[in-house]
Structures are given as structure tokens and as C-alpha cells.
Specification:
The structure is a single chain. With 179 residues, this protein is an alpha/beta fold. The protein has 8 helices and 8 strands, in the order H-E-H-E-H-H-H-E-H-E-H-E-H-E-E-E. Strand 6 and strand 7 form a beta hairpin.
Length: 179
């Protein structure tokens, strides 16, 4: 949590966006749990928006909320008993439609973007990478396994550029790996 908070603060203070490619079920909710804690403990010196940009991740998050007994561990249940939703917090924004998703990249406010897919092979995350990888003030934080040959693995292995939507994109963003 402390390391993630440092990466968030450093990236957002530089005016960049932090992109987290995350698997829609499980990993996204885990990241929301950690970011809620970061916000609650004020580990980042200012409030910041967090976008979840994956219809499947949004639906899974709703299911987690409706099935707390089977989805949450004892630490999360202790929060619930205190009246705290462990995966919801102020300034959490959900991008449901493709127009919502596109609007994220046209908002200049520094932000955290959690988007599927976890290995960057498909989905909305590829658009966020296209708009942020070339920017040195941005960061991409990997929080899950990256298979051999996947875009995520190539980024972790230090690719200087990648092809997205037929366009060569320079990799100037800070690449971080949290396993």
C-alpha cells in the first residue's frame, strides 16, 4: 500500500495518469481495496479521481458488494462491520459506456485508471496505453502475471516502443511491477 501510494503521488504530482491494467474479477477489487486504504490513511497528499473502465469489472464489483460474506476476508468484513465499504470511496468513477471510456483520455486532470485486460492484450486498457505510454509523466503499474509474449510482458521487459492500433507508440511512461 505504501509503495503504491508513492507511485500514485509521484505520478499525479507530475501531472500524469497512472494506468493499472487489471483483471476484471478479483484484481480490480483488490486494487480498489488498497486505494480506499490509501485515501482513508491520506497516504497521498491530495484527493484524486480513480476510474474503473471495464464493464465486467464494474459488474464484478457490484457482485462483490452484494455477496460480502463469500467475497470478503476477515479484514474486509471488519470494515463492513464499521459501516465502511472496503471497495468504494469518494472520487471513484465508473466508465460504463464506450463514450465514458473515451472521455477519460480527454480529461486533463491527473488520475488513476484501472482498466481491463490485465495483460494488455485486449479491451479498453489498450486505448489508455495509447494515450499515456508516450508521456514521461505517466506510469503503468502491473499488478498481475504477464504471460510470455503479451504486451504487458513486453512493457515489463523494457520495450522502447509498442504497436497499438497500427501505430508505433514510444514507451516513455514509468513502468512499475507489483506482483
Amino acid at each position: 500500500v505504501a509503495e503504491l501510494a508513492q507511485v500514485i503521488e509521484r505520478t499525479l504530482r507530475r501531472g500524469g495518469n497512472l494506468v493499472i491494467p487489471a483483471f476484471a474479477v478479483g484484481r480490480t477489487q483488490e486494487m480498489l481495496y488498497f486505494i480506499r486504504e490509501i485515501k482513508e490513511r491520506k497516504l497521498v497528499g491530495f484527493d484524486f479521481p480513480v476510474y474503473v473502465d471495464s464493464p465486467l469489472a464494474i459488474e464484478a464489483t457490484t457482485i462483490f458488494g452484494k455477496n460480502v460474506q463469500s467475497c470478503f476476508d476477515e479484514d474486509a468484513m471488519a470494515l463492513i462491520r464499521q459501516g465502511i465499504n472496503p471497495i468504494r470511496f469518494p472520487n471513484l468513477r465508473l466508465a460504463i459506456s464506450s463514450d465514458d471510456s473515451k472521455a477519460i483520455n480527454f480529461d486533463s486532470t491527473p488520475k488513476v485508471i484501472i482498466s481491463a485486460s490485465g495483460m494488455c492484450e485486449a479491451g479498453r486498457v489498450k486505448h489508455h496505453l495509447k494515450h499515456n505510454l508516450w508521456r514521461p509523466e505517466c506510469a503503468v503499474v502491473f499488478v498481475g502475471y504477464q504471460a510470455e509474449g503479451s504486451l504487458g510482458r513486453r512493457l515489463l521487459e523494457g520495450a522502447k516502443s509498442v504497436k497499438l492500433f497500427g501505430e508505433e507508440i514510444a514507451v516513455n511512461a514509468h513502468i512499475v511491477n507489483f506482483k
